[in-house]
Amino acid sequence: MANIINISEKLKREKKTIVLDGKEYEVDDSKNAYIEMMAAMQNLSDTGDLAQIDKAIELLAGHEFLAKVNKMKLNIEDTRTVLISLMATVQGVSFEEASARFRGEDKE
């Protein structure tokens, strides 16, 4: 007889959000969005196409969030903070941990 394992209760399906200027935005932490975001970041690395940053932000937090970020006219350092915050939210880690990973300091 087959061994049946029910994983339904083990799956986390909670909505993840990020707050910017007092407004909550839902973050898409799905595997598919994460894969697409990582592909955009690889494309950025390969080509230097900075438009990939906007693509990554929009994939994870949506058009409204991206429009808000663009309207703020952030410098590249603050834009990096936005990206790291989104990655931390998706990965379920602290901002500091995601920041260390982003900088390549997370070498276990």
What does this structure look like?
- This protein has 108 residues and is mainly alpha-helical.
- It has one domain (19-102).
- It has helices at 31-47, 51-71, 76-91, 95-102; strands at residues 16-20, 23-27.
- It has a two-stranded antiparallel sheet with strand order 1-2.
Entry summary:
This protein has helices spanning 31-47, 51-71, 76-91, 95-102, and strands at 16-20, 23-27.
Secondary-structure element pattern, one letter each: EEHHHH
Q: What oligomerization state is this entry in?
A: single chain
Strand order of the largest sheet: 1-2
Count of helices? 4
Question: Which class do the helix and strand fractions yield?
Answer: mainly alpha
Give the biggest sheet.
2 strands, antiparallel
Mean pLDDT metric:
91
Instruction: Provide the gyration radius in Å.
Output: 16 Å
Determine the N-to-C terminus distance.
41 Å
The helix content, as a percent range, equals 55-70%
Categorize the overall geometry. Answer: globular
Q: How many separate structural domains?
A: 1
Which runs of at least 5 residues are low in confidence (pLDDT < 50)?
none
- The portion of residues forming beta strands comes to 5-15%
Task: Give the total of beta strands.
Answer: 2
